[in-house]
Amino acid sequence: MKIADYNIVLNFLKSVPSDSSYTYLMDKQREKSIEEPESQKKKVIICAFCSNTITDVNQIISVNGSHQHVFVNPHGIAFETGCFKRCDGCIVETVSYAEFSWFHGYNWQIAGCLRCRQHLGWLFLSDKTIFSNSAISSQSKSSQDKTSQSKNILSFDSFFCLILENIIVPK
Hey, what domains does the chain have and what are their CATH numbers? Predict the structure, then answer.
């Protein structure tokens, strides 16, 4: 490129206003692309097979004193699992089993990914709700507020126990 041609290009670039609306729109576009997507802000847990959103980290719970458990099924297969209150990205089989339940007082159903149908874990359903002593004593008082009783429930009506190898949990 000749120096004269370079000067022409340089003069043209100088003539373009720096605060043009086009530049402003480009800067706004760039800001939006740098922002984290909403799914990243919420810290979603996804299926390891198809990346479908299964739940989010706010649904992590402790059951019997721990979030993570290692269980062995009757066939000798060991599963490292994590417990979650809700998993909207799961589909659950309709058949419920009481045999070989890993959690006393709970029946289980097989849970899979809503999108790819891969086995992700199990839904555990309580056959009854267990109340703490404070909830029982508050029942004998005037039943002012039944919602305060529900806060004292020791066990969950239901929860998911997912195979950690089959999901991706953000760090």
Answer: 59-168 (2.170.150.20)
Find all residues with CB under 8 Å of 147, minimum gap 6, and list them.
none
Residues 6+ apart with CB under 8 A from 64: 103
Q: How many CB atoms neighbour CB 49 within 10 A?
A: 17
In the numeric block, the tokens 């359903």 are attached to 125
**Overall residue count recorded for the chain in this entry:** 171
Confidence of residue 130 (pLDDT cuts 50, 70, 90): very low
* Block residue for tokens 């874990």: 121
Nearest to 112 by CA among 45, 38, 57, 167: 167
* pLDDT tens track for 44-95: 999 999 999 999 999 999 999 999 999 999 999 999 999 999 999 999 999 9
Supply φ then ψ for residue 35, to 5 degrees: -60, 150
Q: What gap in Å lies between CA 125 and CA 52, rounded to an integer?
A: 24
* Residues linked to residue 159 through DSSP beta bridges, in sequence order: 124
